């Protein structure tokens, strides 16, 4: 019966993406809802690994293509259908089909402070979360912070940062690059950066990853060095250094250029803004500081060429660098707790674009306890999204994170 339902699912059109204007989490397709209900009472077949067809009546290569069209958020459900299906979805052949066709799906990657080496991924087509394998070289007693993460060429990269080992009671800056393959659903190590760095600028331009600045234990004033990573060649190359070292860096890719904002030890109270032009291989110091200087790493994202940011009061804005101004779009809703007398403003959340939508994930609020006059942090698991091009902003609920993530250490998105 279940295989018949699966066949019905494959004959149905795939889940549609959010329309160009307005976004919504698409409901589970009816056929897959019937599969989900049926699979709850199904314990799997007792096949012994013999050469039976994956889907009776279909060649295995066509069956794998059918399976490969289902987004990653449904894979846990499909593996419950039968042992043959579980082996097929975990097979190298299955991963090769998805990679050959470029069917990586859409991913939202999030790392929370409560599980600082275990990433979770969200699938907007399925409206489901699932954990990724733990990053190699890390244990439950380890933590990674002050790193950068980006997606490029159907790969998710976690770069540099500070590796903390609580069991060994030590920490160190790292040059490491960890690459998550969405087809194999596995991590692997990539080529190391030339320089270990934390809190550095990082952005993708023309399918290459640019990094600059930051700090490490051997640089008392920060780093001026910069380098670029080619994911196809798995190779880093040095770039011309910035005119001066910058720490606590933030960056965006805009107009085909690498925009870096950071602080100089000699003038820590004020931001410094520099731009690297890849075609000229030159850095330019911006004396007239535009609104980009007021952006922050954790509350800025880009959809196509539009820059969006959330201000501390919850106002969502579109940044207009050419006009040196901001355009307020609306306000992110405050958090209402059942045992608290006023709404609270969240902080420490993930703020990232996926498709045409902005997602706000996790975070926490500071709650005042009137009975003993103390403050306490309340962790949030909410996932909300909106289309910033609609007015007024309409925030919608997606499936909450499987854990209350507390502060979000890193987030990135990948689109098929």
Termini Cα gap = 32 Å
Shape: globular
**The CATH architecture of the largest domain:** 6 Propeller
Strand order, main sheet: write it out. Answer: 3-2-1-29
Largest sheet: 4 strands, antiparallel
Radius of gyration: 23 Å
Number of domains: 3
- The number of distinct helices, counting runs of at least 4 residues, comes to 6
Proportion of residues in extended strands: 35-45%
What do these coordinates show?
The protein is mainly beta and 416 residues long. The protein has 3 domains: 2-101; 104-132 and 298-416, no CATH class; 135-289, 6 Propeller (Neuraminidase), CATH 2.120.10.80. It has helices at 2-11, 30-39, 60-68, 75-78, 83-89, 92-101, and strands at 107-112, 120-123, 128-131, 142-145, 148-152, 155-159, 162-165, 170-173, 177-181, 186-189, 201-205, 208-212, 226-230, 235-239, 247-254, 257-264, 267-277, 282-285, 300-303, 306-310, 315-320, 325-331, 350-354, 357-361, 364-369, 374-379, 383-386, 396-398, 408-414. A 4-stranded antiparallel sheet has the order 3-2-1-29, with no helix packed on it. Helix 1 packs antiparallel against helix 2 and helix 3 crosses helix 6 (92-101). Residues 1-21 and 34-46 have low confidence and may be disordered.
